[in-house]
Amino acid sequence: MRKNYLLTPGPTPLPPKVSEAMSRPIIHHRTPQFQAILKEATEGLKYVFQTKNDVFILASSGTGAMEASVINLLSPGDTALSVQGGKFGERWAELCKPYGINAEIIDVEWGKAVSPLEIEKRLKANPKIKVVFTTLCETSTGVVNDIKAIGEVVNKTEAVLVVDAISGLGAIDLKTDEWFCDVVVSGSQKGLMLPPGLGFISVSPKAFKLIEASKSPRYYFDLRKAKKAIDKTDTPFTPAITLIIALNEALAMIKEDGLEKVFARHKKMADATRVAVQALGLGLFAPTAASDVVTAAKVPQGLDGEKLVKTMRDTYGVTIAGGQGEMKGKLIRIAHMGFIEEFDIIAGISCLEKVLAQMGHKFEMGKGVRAAEEEFLK
Amino acid sequence: MRKNYLLTPGPTPLPPKVSEAMSRPIIHHRTPQFQAILKEATEGLKYVFQTKNDVFILASSGTGAMEASVINLLSPGDTALSVQGGKFGERWAELCKPYGINAEIIDVEWGKAVSPLEIEKRLKANPKIKVVFTTLCETSTGVVNDIKAIGEVVNKTEAVLVVDAISGLGAIDLKTDEWFCDVVVSGSQKGLMLPPGLGFISVSPKAFKLIEASKSPRYYFDLRKAKKAIDKTDTPFTPAITLIIALNEALAMIKEDGLEKVFARHKKMADATRVAVQALGLGLFAPTAASDVVTAAKVPQGLDGEKLVKTMRDTYGVTIAGGQGEMKGKLIRIAHMGFIEEFDIIAGISCLEKVLAQMGHKFEMGKGVRAAEEEFLK
Questions:
Q1: Closest Cα partner for B131 from B63, B207, B221, B218?
Q2: Which residues of A fall within a CB distance of 8 Å from B62?
Q3: N or C end of chain B: smaller count of CB under 10 Å?
Q4: How far is CA B111 from the centre of its chain?
Q5: CB–CB of B133/B110 below 8 Å?
Q6: CB neighbours (10 Å) of residue B253?
């Protein structure tokens, strides 16, 4: 008998309605019944994306949707500007490379947000830049970027803005249309409270012009095929039926609360987590640009961060994430995204206190939980 | 109140154990717990593929796995031989085109199997052919190809044999290693009794040499990344966790019966379906190469095939498939693949009789069901 608690930045816990939806008998996808489901899913995604643009559903992980945006917008020899301040930001340039696309890089110190002015400067310096690749919330550092300000900068140019909102969509505000986000990419296993297996991508009319012009080879991720299909409420290839049925349950929950309330809940959760870890003497990794999606905190000097995460998970059933890439062993990352509530955070902080105490970290027992409780009481 | 019966060649009905598995709380994928699941899935797939080769699991539909085999094996300017005798066979050449791969085509009349001698002739005529693309069971026509004979032909050459076994794997015999199938591609929603969303691909050492040499651009579907990951019991990108958990339930069911018994069950089902539709006066579309996966029967002269399929589905809840491509409106296709048993076939034939009678087709009521019953009694 062992109870598991999931506080990772993807996958996030599944609401019972979502789980139940996946256990229903399967239906065929080329039927009016599934067309109605696909239509509802597409409309619901437009609400969450805050867009009037087309939103396509891919049977892939979020990386598949990222690749779709790279190869559909750019041709070999084209130039893109890629913002990287963490493991997932780096993926944009990695994706450009095999396709012969030049990626100019803005290297942002891990734990910091990118400066929109820097993007403006780079766009002015090189008018050949066709696409700017950014990240809403960099999962590996917990940093949130100022997409609104970046959108204003990019919108003044011919370039197209692509936002990786895999972490963040449905958890924090992202006004796709109002903030001039031409392409927004997301995945199912984060704020949308589903298992992994679906990629999402919204495309503005400005971006569609690049898609028509792109000479990069593509088939499965060809958004021209996706556009042709969605205009007939269809998909070009067999869709991940059960996940799309479950998506409608999650979207209904988000719609019922309304985006504002959903974002406020995430902020409350994040505020509580931030004060709690600080009360335990753990510094925030991104104090100036901390997202409401996932909190990255520094492992106290002398403590083994990997052991901390492993003990919480393997001994007590509480799964949080550790550091990635250059921060391996140096960070803990506690997600407060999707179907996570107040008392899940309390449970997570309590387990963190227990293992920190066992590992010899000096702090006042209960202080983290109390700080979170006081924050929640506000 | 309406009961639905699914007799389509993908998705196929889900066993209750599979449905239940998907409704379990989700777990994180970078954990020892998921590693054990991934290992079990990979081993189980090797059993069903009848191979010692690596089998990779992709988060994509079957077409994604087909694209993976094209771009990992071939470079721009390379030549492949593509067998096409239906909608899915045609996909191989469609996939080659954007990547600048020359596809020589063997055009097989729809409803017929390809002649292995023709493949031998073409390989001799053009020693530049690096890859031969074939289909185990062509879903659009119900035809099964003689992969064993094709394997013997291709194995005598430098070329690599790729088999699209999306329809057929786990339903009819395919001895990957014994029949020299270098690459076998499959999907989750057919013989493996899962929802769509997973692609599978097995790779022989001979094929791995082409993978190392391929200059086609790729990232998400890069099998070099997949190989590196699986050697550490990992995946390069976030896997479709719930579907893989469900896969293990389906694989356990197949293993419990054993492949021989599973194939015998499919044959029995196919034999009964074939005699039943013929007893109703419907000719088999592929009398000389009918697969045990799906039966394609010709719609009687003067009858509207699309209306027949729609009425069965929308009025009576029995979903079968109609004709695709050039056979639209002219065929019905009844699947007997995956979690389908004797009395599902009886139900399907009975509904077919009902609608045929309503549409004015002349036949002796009950004759199709009786023919199936007699076949099952043998």
A1: B207
A2: 237-238
A3: N
A4: 16
A5: no
A6: 16
Q: Does B190 touch chain A (CB under 8 A)?
A: no
Q: Which residues of B touch A314 (CB under 8 A)?
A: 32
Question: Does A6 touch chain B if contact means CB atoms closer than 8 Å?
Answer: yes
CB B74 within 8 A of CB B99: yes
Which residues in chain A are classed under CATH 3.40.640.10? Answer: 16-256
A368 conformational bin, left if phi > 0, alpha if psi -120 to 50, beta if neither: alpha
Q: Within its chain, how far is the Cα of B37 from the centroid?
A: 24
Decide if pLDDT at A127 tops 90: yes
Q: What was the pLDDT predicted at A167?
A: 94
- What three-state secondary structure class fits B145? coil
Residues of chain A within CATH 3.90.1150.10 domain(s) are 5-10+258-377
Q: Using CA atoms of B366, B367, B373, B374 in order, give the dihedral in degrees to the nearest 10.
A: 150
- Which residue from B8, B67, B238 is facing A62, i.e. has the nearest CB? B238
C-beta atoms of B187 and A238 within 8 A: yes
Residue of B32, B98, B238 lying closest to A10 (CB–CB) = B238
Do B238 and A64 lie within an 8 Å CB cutoff?
A: no
Whole-model pTM?
0.97
> Considering only CB atoms, which chain A residues are within 8 Å of B19?
22-25
| Cβ-Cβ contacts under 8 Å, A11 against chain B | 26-29, 238, 241
Residue A1 pLDDT: 81
User: With pLDDT > 70 as the criterion, what percentage of chain B qualifies?
Assistant: 100
User: Could you say which of 3.40.630.30, 3.40.640.10, 3.40.50.150, 3.90.78.10 is the CATH number of the domain covering A16-256?
Assistant: 3.40.640.10
SS3 content of chain B, % helix, strand, coil (to 5): 45, 15, 40
Q: Cα(A137)–Cα(A372) distance, rounded to whole angstroms?
A: 23
Cα–Cα distances (Å) from B354 to A227, B330, B340, B350, B366, in that order, read 39, 19, 21, 6, 9
Which of B3, B4, B30, B60 has the most A C-beta neighbours within 10 Å, making it the best mutation to test the interface with A?
B60
Name the CATH code of domain A5-10+258-377 (choices 3.40.50.300, 3.30.390.10, 3.30.420.40, 3.90.1150.10). Answer: 3.90.1150.10
**Contact flag B20-A23 (C-beta cutoff 8 Å):** yes
Model confidence band, residue B145 (pLDDT cutoffs 50, 70, 90): very high
CA distance A154 to A207: 13
- A72 to chain B nearest CA, in Å? 13
- Across the range B13-21, mean pLDDT stands at 98
